[in-house]
């Protein structure tokens, strides 16, 4: 596709359930990022992929959060045993590493609501 | 640790000029980026300053002074569609290329 896509666009789940969020980056972009944005707040970095490896997982808030990327393309962010404080918009971005300005292209996000 | 400070809200009149400031404290620094985000939308890239000075892109300009740990985004000839949140972000020298974002400035353009 022409841009970064994410699915689902909205997800409502019950506390304690697991959720999977998907990101399809721009074709050819080797770098992929996950961010979290709470209402009215800035973006909080979660994890970065270069190809299929994740050299920086420093932003993952707890061991309930994990992510993987396969084939250097699609990435999945998994949240286990969701808590109400996990409610936020989860944004995925991709970039071409050769871009000197590090421009990141964001998807529309997945709005997660944990009841 | 890192911190980025921006005004939380700014209001300006259509056709006017507005400056959104960003001051930062980081343990390292590659450059300063600016992103625009409309309500319910995805952040979109506006500009990047890797070096000190002014970068101009149409109605938008961005400035960086490393010695002052300060930057700003300048929007000229404001239009109603410029009403959005604007985030400065620091590219950290961790080898990861990830961005550390400020909490954003909500710009409201009024007629």
Summed up:
The complex is a heterodimer of chains A (115) and B (111). Chain A is mostly beta strands and 115 residues long.
Q: What layout of secondary structure does this protein have?
A:
The complex is a heterodimer of chains A (115) and B (111).
Chain A lengths: L4 E3 L2 E4 L5 E6 L6 E7 L5 E8 L2 E4 L8 E5 L5 E5 L8 E8 L9 E2 L3 E5 L1
Parallel strand pairs in A: 2-11
Antiparallel strand pairs in A: 1-3, 3-8, 4-5, 4-9, 5-6, 7-8, 9-10, 9-11
Chain B lengths: L2 E3 L3 E5 L4 E8 L5 E7 L6 E6 L3 E5 L2 E6 L4 E6 L8 E8 L7 E3 L3 E6 L1
Parallel strand pairs in B: 2-11
Antiparallel strand pairs in B: 1-3, 3-8, 4-5, 4-9, 6-7, 7-8, 9-10, 9-11
What does this 3D model show about the protein?
- The complex is a heterodimer of chains A (115) and B (111).
- With 115 residues, chain A is mainly β.
- Chain A is built from no helices and eleven strands.
- In chain A, strands 2, 4, 5, 6, 9, 10 and 11 form a seven-stranded mixed beta sheet that branches.
- Chain B is mainly β.
- The interface between A and B is medium-sized, with 28 and 25 residues.
| Oligomer kind | heterodimer
Range of helix content of chain B: under 10%
**Which consecutive residue ranges of chain B, at least 5 long each, have pLDDT under 50?**
none
Outline the low-pLDDT stretches of chain A.
Answer: none
What is the alpha-carbon Rg of chain B in Å? 13 Å
Helix/strand class of chain A: mainly beta
Structural class, from secondary structure content of chain B? mainly beta
Distance between the termini of chain B: 41 Å
Integer-rounded radius of gyration of chain A = 13 Å
Helix content of chain A: under 10%
Number of alpha- plus pi-helical segments of chain A: 0
Output the helix-strand order of chain B.
EEEEEEEEEEE
Looking at the structure, what is the overall shape of chain A? globular
Largest interface, by Cβ-Cβ below 8 angstroms: which chains and how many residues each? A-B, 28 and 25 residues
Order of helices and strands of chain A: EEEEEEEEEEE
Average pLDDT across residues of chain A? 91
Measured distance between first and last alpha carbons of chain A: 33 Å
Number of strand segments of chain B:
11
What's the tally of helices of chain B? 0
Portion of residues in beta strands of chain A equals over 45%
Number of strands of chain A: 11
